[in-house]
Amino acid sequence: MKKLFLIFSFLVFALCSCDFVQSNDSNKTDDETKEENKTDDESKKEEEVEPPLPNLDSTKSNTMNSYIDSLMSNTDSYIPSWNQEGFKGRWNYIDGVFLKSIVDLYNKTNDTKYINFVKTFVDYYIDESGNFLNLRTDITQPGYNFGELDSVCESKVLFDLYSYTNEERYKTAIDYTYNALSNQLKLDDGICYAHKTSYSNQVWLDGFYMYAPFVARYAKVFNHNEIFDSLYNQFKYVRNHMYDETKKLYYHGYSYTNIFWANDNKCSSSFWTRSIGWFVSSLADTIEYYPDGDKKAELIKIYQEALDGVLNYLDKSSNMFYQVTDKGNQSKTVSYSKYLKYLNKNYSSDTVLSNYLESSGSSLIAYSLLKGYNSKVLKRSYYDNGFNIFNGVYDKSFKNNELGDICITAGLGPSDKTYRDGSFDYYLAEPVGKNDAKGVGPFIMAFIEIQ
Is the pLDDT of residue 281 over 90? Predict the structure, then answer.
């Protein structure tokens, strides 16, 4: 009897429990029922929905637009205020960096005032037949300087002018640029272009920004797909020879033959932030023209790896990068007789100089991060980093309608300029200035990607 009673009690309990569960189910809302019935794929899709992109403060946005207008309105001739070096009056990369930012602005807004500004400026240098002109009588260089990758940079905007106007002279100038590049010296192993004739057998990261996006666009627009293979091999060469596996950073320069600034690994001794910025920006601008396939996928890997590496050195308090990437806020007594005497008129004796937060390299990296996301190449976290870096540059270096903290110039050699030795001291010794296009252009380009 006792066993029967226990069995009966268990059955009653079970029936009551079922009623309770059914009662609870019947009381569920339609939304709760749908939530339980979601498939794994549906739940995964919901998890992948990104939050809205951050908005730039309206005051900053308005100020940037006003700043850009002022830079254009203050340029009523071929000698602009944004060029702080002695390249004015001929086709040059400094003007090219700024004009590229204005072309980007036109492509984003369709406001013809931007493309018309670029056309007016370019037309000082290119005649009706598509010839490059030199507008200065005090230098003997031609309008287009052969034998250097830098000259290619300004020719990037010619594609947009040709598309906008259909004027054949711009196509002539594009072909001229490509043919000049085809005759550029290469390293003795035949893979990479030498940076300049005066820097034979040397590869600088800077050069890739100057020419690679032009070449990739030329290949795409005019159906020269064989160019993509050569360009891919050049990027791979740099990855194999100039990337430091420990630091996760790229050296500024590499020399195939012996040169005073090269170490045993044939690379320069320091990591210069702007050169890294040039390199990652060249990848951002080149990849968009590349045909889908294994080579494009490999370039994206190189691109992401380079960004991941340099982001390790971001100064979190300012959201900027230092002039010498891995040295933080270190200071050094810089020799007057060895460096400052030749480089920086602000000093007349040995001086303690500090590594500084530099705006042009920071802006280039911000641009590359932002564009990579907008091009659907990089994940959202890269965009957020780029957004924060742009704001860091704006808050720290943009004052009174001027962008400061710009390293005006830096390089390696040649042999008669041994003070350009790629050392920490050297990069600290180079002058720092304001409103030079090497900083202004990338700063505007990053702003446009946020817009």
Answer: yes
Where is the domain boundary, 165, 184, 203? Answer: 184
Q: Does residue 20 lie in a domain region? A: no
pLDDT above 60 (res 299)? yes
Query: Given a cut of 80, is residue 42 above it in pLDDT?
Result: no
Residue 432: what residue type?
A: V
Which three-class secondary structure state does DSSP give residue 94?
helix
129 CB-contact burial (10 Å; exposed 0-12 / middle 13-18 / buried 19+):
exposed
* 215 shares its domain with 180: no
The pLDDT of residue 293 is above 90: yes
Residue 325's CATH number? 1.50.10.10
Residue-wise pLDDT tens digits, 133-176? 988 777 667 789 889 999 999 999 999 999 999 999 999 999 99
In a domain, 57, yes or no: no
CA gyration radius for the chain? 28
Q: Give the integer Cα–Cα distance in Å for 268 and 259.
A: 10
- DSSP per-residue letters across 271-329: -BHHHHHHHHHHHHHHHTTSPSSHHHHHHHHHHHHHHHHHHTT-BTTTTBEESBTTSTT
In a shared domain, residues 206 and 176: no
Query: Does residue 225 share a domain with residue 91?
Result: no
C-alpha 254/C-alpha 238 separation (Å) is 8
* pTM, rounded to two decimals: 0.89
One domain for residues 276 and 337: yes
Domain that holds residue 430: 186-451
Where is 386: in which H helix or E strand? helix 380-397
